Amino acid sequence: MNKQDFNELLDFAIEREKEAVDFYRSLQKESKFADQIKMLKELEAMEMGHIVVIESIRKTGVKPEDIQRTPNLMISEYITADPATLDLTYQNILIRAMKREENSFKLYSEMSVKFPDAEIATLFRRLAADEAKHKLIFEKLYDDWMSAGN
Asked: What is the pTM of this model?
C-alpha cells in the first residue's frame, strides 16, 4: 500500500471521529441538565482523543502487536431500541454511545477483512480494537448503573 492510500484511510477514520464529536455536541444542545452536558462534553473529548490516536498512527504506522484484545460484555448487542429515538436520560445517553461504538467496531472489523493488503487490514483491526475499548467503557458504566438498581 502506498502512503497516499494509507493517509486516505486515516482521513476516513478521522472523519468518522469528527462525526462522533459533532454527535455529542448536538446532544449537548438538546440536554437540559448540567450533569448530562458535563458527561457529553467528556464523551466529546474522548472522541477528540481518538483523532489524536489516529494522527499518531499516521506518523508511526501500525503493527499487529499494537492491537489489544478487549472483552465484550455484549450489552449493546442485546439492546434493540433505536438509539435515535431515545430521550436524553443517563441510561439512554449510554445506550446511544454504546451503539455508536458498536457500529464503528463493526464497520472497521468488516473493512479489515475486505482489503487483501496486510497493512490496511492491520490498520482496520487496530481501529476496531480501539472502538471495542470505548464500547467496553460505556458497557461498564451501563452495567454499574443498572446494578445500582436504576
From this structure: 0.87
What values do phi and psi take at 63, rounded to 5? -125, 155
State residue 14's pLDDT score. Answer: 96
DSSP state, residue 69: P
DSSP state of 16: H
Dist. CA 18–CA 49, nearest whole Å: 11
Where does the pLDDT of residue 136 fall: very low under 50, low under 70, confident under 90, or very high at 90 and above? very high
- Mean pLDDT, rounded, for 29-44: 89
Assigned C-alpha cell, 13: 477514520
In the structure grid, which three cell numbers stand for residue 46, read together? 474522548
Indicate if the pLDDT at residue 46 is higher than 80. yes
Alpha helical stretches, state H, 115-149: 118-147
Cα(45)–Cα(21) distance, rounded to whole angstroms? Answer: 8
Q: Is 88 helix (H, G, I), strand (E, B) or coil?
A: coil
| Nearest-angstrom CA–CA distance, 113 and 122 | 10
Q: Distance of CA 92 to CAs 78, 108, 121, Å?
A: 14, 24, 33
Cα(88)–Cα(81) distance, rounded to whole angstroms? 14
Domains of the chain: 3-147 (1.20.1260.10)
